[in-house]
Design a protein that fits this description.
The complex is a heterodimer of chains A (about 240) and B (about 425).
Chain A: E1 2-8, H1 19-30, E2 35-41, E3 54-57, H2 62-85, E4 90-93, H3 95-99, E5 103-105, E6 112-113, E7 120-137, E8 145-159, E9 167-171, E10 181-182, E11 184-186, E12 189-192, H4 203-218, H5 230-241
Parallel strand pairs in A: 1-2, 1-3, 3-4, 4-12, 5-7
Antiparallel strand pairs in A: 5-6, 7-8, 7-9, 9-10, 11-12
Helix pairs in contact in A: 1-4
Chain B: H1 3-22, H2 30-38, H3 42-47, E1 52-57, H4 62-75, E2 80-82, H5 90-100, E3 112-116, H6 122-125, E4 133-136, H7 144-147, H8 150-162, E5 169-173, H9 177-180, E6 189-195, E7 215-223, E8 227-234, E9 237-243, H10 248-263, H11 268-274, E10 286-289, E11 295-298, H12 304-314, E12 323-327, E13 361-365, H13 369-378, E14 386-388, H14 392-400, E15 407-411, H15 413-425
Parallel strand pairs in B: 1-3, 1-4, 2-3, 4-5, 5-6, 6-7, 11-15, 12-13, 12-15, 13-14
Antiparallel strand pairs in B: 7-8, 8-9, 10-11
Classes of the chains: A alpha/beta (about 240), B alpha/beta (about 425).
């Protein structure tokens, strides 16, 4: 089996160690004998239907976000949206998450139009929401589980009616620091504010993305071969214990 | 002479005296901190007494560059004051001034001041120091939890540069594209330094073909841990340099310091000659002997680019009997966000698949040792070669048990401070603030 990981705007949206998510997807596929190739897709590159099996879209600085928002309107945004509609999994963090909502309104600049994949919108705020974050989620497995990482954003994201949050904030700020929701999930697409990196120390989410990608691509139920997660869980638990 | 001004200095000196007598630390922040509360204009008032002021900022290399420059200038018989031990906020500068001002006539007897300032503090502190020369070393992602984003750091520097007196001289790293936008922010003279071929690129790629550098390191030859040889060239001539500290990043520090000495019109050959007696800054590249007689090296790591440069410097030197001790803390001074380790190129240490016997042992330590072990696992390091111990003291002990080669210690900032304490207590090293 083989998976193509589409790394969206790797050269502009790669702040805060988000590359760790790509590394985690690639390694956990390879350790199971699944070939994993990273395809870099940036400004001006074309994106065709069926070309990518998992999308990753990281965070970036304001200036990068402007360039990327513009590029997304030139066709790429539509392709990403229709792929997600068909069940292709996607993980987006911070800036990437914001641009996949309805819009991102920076402080002193014109509104950036989003892709409209997540029923959510984001406005810049005066507060910088920085620190470790723990959320509880029940959408990636039957039992609820914790996701842990580090958030650093000033945008406040509000979910629209009917939108499904990725989870509930246990510690930290989450989407907006007000309603205790964090992230958003739509079909197999996840958006959130968790850096850290997120996937290496939250292997359950990594495996969920891999499983969804394989099921979509090979049109059958897939049970992933279990891996030894001892080191992953130690790092996960240490991050949670930082809250005392 | 205001009474508050005098009292603030007196208070600072008392705190300094107390911390020295009680031996409770370097006393590099507290005296300035409290004195500034009493007299907020302390820094500008004292600093302007010193005829020449040089301010150095950037993500990596501030401490080494300041130390090197201080060494160069004092080798020419000039009296230099600088804020030492990496205390680069306003309070650290205030402490250095307080510690050196004469309490009876409130005079500072120095020819030149070298101020290393934190990237964020630069904007508020630099104007108070009325600098003659400002050095911008580089801008990389570092502790974004504290500074915000890289672009916003540079745009704030730009605002500060706009307000500078026109006769200020700016020296900047011409290989770092992120800094070149500063040229539009300043009407006075800007000079650039950099290296040829072994360039360390910044966060942004140079889009236009690189400009001619005013001070350039050419014909670089790398001699592992022994150091680097190169030629330094400017419009007036060319000189051979033998740098006895390893790492291309130290060539940059040298070039920045050299450029300043040329702006100060010091004799190039005398400057280069004086390097022979230079000792690197605390924890930047330190070599010492363990009680067993084995050699150990300390290289500070604190952000992705700096750490990757350290990895590239030591990797070709690692033999299978050598060991690594990497210590990752997430205290405030280290940055509470450990995401950066995923941007650092730990893949350099991955083991070759066929020669397991050639793997060197890696000890992970510090408050986030587990995250470090995870990073190593995902960079392809064999799990059998990883040992995890949060306590730096335990990790240091374990890493010496059965050690046949050398020990390379790579700590983040507060891990370096703990390590230093342990080494001092064991009688292996002197206190750093006495250096």
């Amino acid at each position: 089996m083989k998976l193509i990981i589409g790394y969206l705007y790797h050269d502009l949206m790669n702040i805060y160690g988000d590359i760790g998510n790509i590394i985690a997807l690639q390694k956990r596929a390879e350790w199971r004998g699944i070939e994993a190739e990273v395809k870099y897709i940036s400004i001006g590159d074309s994106l065709k239907t069926g070309e990518v099996d998992i999308f990753f879209f990281g965070g970036g600085q304001d200036l990068s976000q402007e360039l990327v928002a513009k590029d997304l309107t030139k066709g790429k945004g539509k392709v990403i949206k229709s792929e997600v509609e068909k069940g292709v999994p996607l993980l987006s963090i911070c800036g990437g998450y914001q641009l996949l909502g309805d819009y991102y309104q920076p402080f002193d600049k014109p509104k950036l139009k989003g892709v409209g994949l997540f029923p959510a919108y984001t406005n810049a705020s005066n507060d910088r929401m920085i620190g470790n974050i723990v959320i509880q989620t029940s959408v990636i497995s039957r039992q609820s589980s914790d996701l842990v990482g580090f958030e650093n954003h000033s945008g406040k994201t509000k979910l629209k009616k009917g939108a499904k949050p990725l989870g509930q904030v246990l510690k930290g700020f989450g989407n907006n620091g007000e309603d205790r929701t964090e992230g958003c999930i739509y079909k197999n697409a996840v958006g959130c504010y968790i850096h850290g990196s997120l996937l290496p120390k939250n292997p359950r989410l990594t495996d969920w993305l891999l499983q969804k990608a394989l099921e979509k691509k090979y049109k059958k139920d897939v049970v992933l071969e279990p891996l030894n997660n001892e080191i992953e869980l130690k790092a996960h638990n240490k991050a949670i214990s930082k809250f005392g | 002479m205001g009474i508050k001004f005098f009292l603030s200095i007196l208070l600072g000196k008392l705190i300094l005296f107390t911390t020295n007598v009680l031996n409770i630390g370097g006393g590099s922040a507290a005296p300035g901190y409290y004195a500034l509360k009493l007299y907020p204009e302390l820094v500008s008032k004292l600093a302007k007494q010193i005829p020449k002021a040089i301010v150095i900022t950037g993500t990596n290399g501030k401490t080494t560059t300041s130390k090197m420059l201080g060494h160069f200038i004092s080798s020419q018989g000039l009296k230099v004051l600088r804020n030492t031990t990496g205390s680069n906020l306003e309070r650290g500068i205030a402490s250095a001034l307080i510690s050196n001002v004469n309490l009876f006539n409130l005079k500072l007897n120095f020819d030149t001041a070298i101020w290393e300032t934190d990237e964020a503090a630069f904007n508020s502190v630099a104007p108070k120091l009325s600098p003659d020369i400002i050095v911008f070393l580089n801008v990389f992602r570092d502790q974004l939890d504290r500074y915000g984003e890289v672009d916003s750091i540079v745009s704030k520097w730009c605002e500060t540069a706009k307000k500078l007196k026109k006769d200020t001289k700016i020296i900047l790293n011409g290989d770092d594209a992120g800094l070149l936008s500063l040229e539009a922010c300043f009407k006075g003279k800007i000079q650039t330094f950099g290296v040829s071929r072994f360039k360390i690129k910044g966060e942004k790629n140079l889009t236009t073909s690189a400009k001619k550098l005013d001070f350039e390191a050419k014909n670089i030859e790398v001699y592992g841990l022994e150091g680097t040889k190169f030629e330094v060239e400017d419009k007036t001539g060319k000189w051979g340099v033998s740098l006895s500290i390893p790492g291309i990043y130290h060539v940059y520090d040298f070039m920045a310091s050299f450029a300043v000495t040329q702006t100060l019109k010091l004799a190039p050959s005398a400057i280069i000659n004086s390097f022979k007696t230079f000792a690197p800054a605390f924890g930047r590249v330190e070599k010492f002997k363990l009680p067993t007689g084995k050699e150990a090296y300390i290289f500070l790591i604190k952000n992705p680019v700096g750490a990757t440069q350290v990895f590239q410097t030591i990797k070709p030197e690692l033999k299978k009997e050598d060991r690594l001790l990497i210590a990752l803390n997430d205290n405030f001074a280290d940055g509470t966000d450990v995401s950066w380790i995923w941007d650092a190129n730990f893949e350099i240490f991955q083991n070759s698949s066929r020669a397991e016997s050639r793997n060197y042992q890696i000890f992970c330590s510090g408050t986030r040792a587990e995250e470090l072990a995870l990073r190593l696992k995902y960079s392809g390091v064999n799990l059998h070669s990883i040992t995890t111990k949060n306590s730096i003291e335990d990790a240091l002990k374990d890493s010496q048990t059965g050690l046949n080669g050398r020990l390379f210690i790579l700590p983040t900032y507060t891990a370096l401070l703990s390590l230093q304490k342990i080494l001092v207590n064991q009688g292996i090293k002197e206190r750093y603030w006495k250096q």
